[in-house]
Structure formats: structure tokens, C-alpha cells
Amino acid sequence: MTNRKNILITGGTGFIGGHLSRYLVDQGYAVTVLTRAEAIHQTGTEHLAFVAALADLQPRHWYGVINLAGEPLNKTRWSQAQKAQIINSRVAVTQDLTAWLRGLSTPPEVSISGSAVGWYGHWDDECLDEDSPSRAGFSNALCAAWETAAMAQADLARRLCIVRLGIVLGNDGGSLPAMLLPAKLGLGGSMGNGRQWWSWIHLEDVVRSIKMLLENPQATGVFNLTAPHPVTQIEFARTLGRQLHRPALLPLPGFMAKLMLGEFAEEVLLKGQRVRPKKLLDNGFTFNHPDLPTALRHLL
Ligand SMILES: NC(=O)c1ccc[n+]([C@@H]2O[C@H](COP(=O)([O-])OP(=O)(O)OC[C@H]3O[C@@H](n4cnc5c(N)ncnc54)[C@H](OP(=O)(O)O)[C@@H]3O)[C@@H](O)[C@H]2O)c1
């Protein structure tokens, strides 16, 4: 028997979820990761367990549920079928969680459900916060479907938080490792015109802010999980180049990026949005890595 609070995490074998699970165990929680059957060979530890199905969960009080699972965006080129899979994988897991929550005898304190700053769609230099409107496009459709599915949990937990994640920077997953080799070779320059905004966040601040959402009884609704100082793509490339003592020289024309990566390049790399974490700041969250030079220095 343990007096640790129980947290259920979907996507807990992934880049963010893996770090989050270990961090929450270190912070005194007992974490259970819901993972698809083929990944169940993962070995647990005393306070970190893996289950293949919600039906396998032992009856107990769940303090929090964190939902991050979904087909990776860059797994393969985006056909219509792949785009449907990217959306459906997230919506299906969220709906399964909703059905499971409905059957619990006591509601969790909080359900935290994933989304991304892609919800806002593509913008130029406008500063966006949680009150800003969205613009149509695939990223918006994906995040809107994911968030709408999560809204069904509003009455099934005491609080529902939706986290709109920016580009998460870490050493062992996400976008940064893929950017390092070209940058080290001095090849990381502008993508397209380079003026698109990239709203990034250090992985450490992601896990710390999710812990704050778990524990702050006032925290509810949508939260942008982005650093307070987003940058344009060319500023990102130059900052990374400076950290690596390499010039950010070679531009990648937009048409080349689209040729190489298809619609993913158009949606995620060549266009962006300048997002501010207004609600995290209003709730008193302090960032360990508020600006990009600090974050990259720490990571590299
Ligand atoms: N990384 C970022 O920069 C970033 C930015 C914005 C939003 N996000 C979102 O945040 C979430 C976590 O990101 P991440 O980088 O940690 O992702 P990740 O490393 O790709 O992990 C995602 C997890 O989802 C599960 N999964 C994969 N395909 C699935 C499918 N078809 N159906 C059901 N589950 C599936 C996997 O768990 P099992 O194999 O154990 O089942 C995997 O561990 C993702 O939904 C992502 O879209 C990430």
C-alpha cells in the first residue's frame, strides 16, 4: 500500500510522457502508463507501472489523468488516410478515457488533455494568447477535434485543463535532435522566408508546468505551454548556430521543404504562430528557461 497520489498517463512511453512519468515519480506520485499492447514489454519500477488496457486498471482513487497519446505527426508523408489516422488516434484514446472516467466512483481531481499551438492556425506577427481566435487549416482541425473530445470530460473530473504545447525542446526526442546535424554542419539557415514564428518550450518547463496544473486547484481551462519568448525561425536557426559556433548559412527554400516533407513542412515548419503563455504566467508559473539562448545552452 502506498500513500502516493495515483496518476494515469497515456502516451507515457513517448518523448514528453516518458520524461513526465519519471519526473512525477521523483516528485512523489505513483504513475501508471497506458500503452498499446505491443509496447507492454516496458519494465516498471516500484512507482511506475504499465498497463495495456483501461480495463486492466486496479480500482483505486485516481488523482489525475494526463492524456498525451497520438500517432506522431512526422511518422510518414501525409496522405488523406494518414491525416485521418493522426486525428483519429488522438480522438479515440480521448473517448476511451472519457468512457472510463464515467465509470469511476470518485472523480479525479484533474484531467489534463493534450493539444498544440497549431490550434491557433497560421498567423504572421500577431501575439496570441488563450483568448485569441483560431484560423482554419489541418493543424487547427486536428487540435480542435482533440480538444472537443476532451471537453466531454469537463464534468467527469473536478478540473479539466487542456495544454496547447509549443515545439518541445529536449535532447532525446522532439524536433531538436533532427535540427542538430544540419546546424553542426553549418547548413541550418532560414526555412522558407524564415519569418514564421516558432513558439518553443524547454522539456523541463513542460513537465514542471504540468505538475503545477496537477497541483494548483485554481488551474482550469486552456493553457499555452510555450516559453514567454517565442522567436522567428531564422532567429531560432541563428541562435542554434551561435550555440554550436557554426554560422546558420544555407537557406532551405520553401518549395524544397515541401518537396522533401510534403504538407507537414507547410503546416509545421514554414508557417507558425507567435504564442504567449498568458495563463501560466497569470497563475504564477516561473520558467527555468524563458528565452531560447538559455534553453539551448542548457540542452547543448
Ligand atoms: N513533441 C512536441 O514538440 C509536441 C508539440 C506539440 C504537441 N505535441 C503532442 O504531445 C503529445 C506527446 O508528444 P511526444 O513528442 O511525447 O510524442 P511521442 O514521443 O510520439 O509519443 C506519443 C505516444 O503516443 C502513443 N501513440 C503513438 N501512436 C499511437 C496511435 N496510433 N494510437 C494511440 N497511441 C499512439 C505512443 O504510446 P504507446 O506506443 O506506448 O502506445 C507514444 O508513446 C503528442 O500527441 C504530440 O502530438 C508534441
TrEMBL record:
This is TIGR01777 family protein. SUPFAM superfamilies: NAD(P)-binding Rossmann-fold domains. Belongs to the NAD(P)-dependent epimerase/dehydratase family. SDR39U1 subfamily. Pfam families: DUF1731, Epimerase. PANTHER family: EPIMERASE FAMILY PROTEIN SDR39U1, SUGAR NUCLEOTIDE EPIMERASE RELATED. Residues 7-224 form the NAD-dependent epimerase/dehydratase domain. Residues 252-299 form the DUF1731 domain. Coiled coil: none annotated. It comes from SAR86 cluster bacterium.
